[in-house]
């Protein structure tokens, strides 16, 4: 995934150079145009693309692979059992999800993206070992019902630092509000445990668009952040790339790939004490309406 992103970023730079009208050639030298004129965006765009859209709504069918490492500690501070929940608790590792995203263009160079992901999975499995799950202990050979609910709401602002008719690159900041809930119970003994945690992650963001032709475009974005506080350590990375086909002026089909990695470790007894690491990665199909 990282190699693919690096190759795509290199391609973006090469296209930007090709689109720069000041480049000229080695014999003629740069064209004699004022710098202020070169930095201005095109006055009018003739072809509809992600660069010209003022608003866009995207609905995706997301098919990720999910790997989750979980440890729920006791409120006394004693460490819980380390779990790979897809194996140890039987949670689905290839869920099918819907995602939603909206993009607002404010002026020519400013964009605001709002995206939402909800991932809820359930497990029902006979335990192969004794598990300390928060303040409860589930015994070997007991049947345990478990669930993990993960939700993420992202707000991201970017401003274009390169802006041409066929090529755009933006940089900015964002915030991701993450919520995770873990629940486990053994109904035969009427014992259960539930913990939840909420964390805001401010992020640094980059995005880019290359309009390959009248109907095709390639789009790439990434966000990342790392925090290290007194009772919390965490990191977030969110990368996405896609190809879009403009079927009609206001309607697009697309195929993309998304990789999300969350790392969170908390010692606070009020905010899901323990460790929650989750990797969500896979392809997505989407439709996009815009104007």
Walk me through this protein's architecture.
- The protein is mostly beta strands and 291 residues long.
- It has one domain: Beta Barrel (Lipocalin), CATH 2.40.128.
- 9% of the residues lie in helices and 60% in strands.
- It is built from 3 helices and 14 strands.
- It has a 10-stranded antiparallel β-barrel.
- The longest helix has 18 residues.
- 31% of the residues are buried.
Task: Tell me, briefly, the overall form.
Answer: elongated
Q: Which sheet architecture does the biggest sheet show?
A: 10 strands, antiparallel, barrel
Q: Which strand order does the major sheet show?
A: 1-4-5-8-9-10-11-12-13-14
Beta percentage is over 45%
Instruction: Enter the CATH topology name.
Output: Lipocalin
**CATH class placement:** Mainly Beta
CA-CA gap between termini: 31 Å
Number of alpha- plus pi-helical segments: 3
Q: How would you spell out the order of helices and strands?
A: HHEEEHEEEEEEEEEEE
Quickly give the CATH architecture: Beta Barrel
Number of strands: 14
Unreliable stretches: 1-13, 15-31, 35-42
State the domain count: 1
> What do the pLDDT scores average to?
87
Question: Helical percent range?
Answer: under 10%
Structural class: mainly beta
CA-based gyration radius: 23 Å
Q: Any chance you could write out the topology, listing elements then pairs?
A:
Layout (H helix, E strand, L loop, with lengths): L1 H18 L15 H4 L16 E8 L2 E8 L10 E2 H4 L8 E10 L3 E17 L4 E3 L2 E3 L4 E21 L3 E20 L4 E21 L4 E13 L3 E17 L2 E16 L7 E17 L1
Antiparallel strand pairs: 1-4, 1-14, 2-3, 2-14, 4-5, 5-8, 6-7, 8-9, 9-10, 10-11, 11-12, 12-13, 13-14
């Amino acid at each position: 995934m990282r190699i693919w992103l690096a190759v795509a970023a290199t391609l973006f730079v090469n296209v930007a150079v090709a689109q720069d009208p000041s480049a000229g050639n080695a014999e003629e030298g740069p064209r004699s145009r004022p710098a202020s004129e070169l930095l201005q965006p095109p006055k009018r765009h003739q072809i509809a693309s992600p660069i010209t859209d003022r608003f866009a709504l995207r609905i995706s069918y997301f098919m990720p692979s999910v790997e989750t490492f979980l440890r729920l500690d006791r409120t006394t501070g004693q460490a819980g059992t380390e779990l790979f929940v897809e194996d140890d608790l039987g949670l689905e590792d290839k869920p099918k999800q819907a995602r939603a995203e909206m993009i607002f263009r404010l002026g020519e160079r400013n964009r605001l993206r709002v995206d939402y992901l909800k991932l809820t999975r359930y497990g029902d499995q006979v335990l192969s070992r004794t598990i300390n799950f928060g303040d409860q202990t589930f015994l070997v050979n007991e049947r345990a019902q478990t669930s993990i609910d993960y939700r993420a709401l992202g707000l991201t602002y970017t401003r274009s630092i390169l802006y041409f008719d066929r090529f755009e690159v933006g940089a900015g900041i964002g915030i991701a509000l993450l919520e995770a809930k873990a629940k486990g119970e053994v109904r035969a003994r009427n014992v259960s445990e539930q913990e939840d945690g909420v964390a805001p992650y401010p992020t640094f963001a980059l995005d880019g668009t290359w309009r390959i032709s009248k109907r095709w475009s390639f789009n790439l974005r990434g966000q990342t952040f790392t925090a290290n506080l007194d009772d919390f350590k965490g990191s977030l990375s969110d990368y996405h790339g896609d190809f879009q086909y403009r079927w009609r002026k206001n309607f697009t089909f697309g195929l993309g790939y998304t990789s999300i990695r969350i790392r969170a470790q908390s010692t606070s007894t009020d905010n899901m004490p323990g460790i929650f690491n989750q990797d969500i990665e896979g392809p997505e199909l989407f439709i996009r309406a815009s104007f």
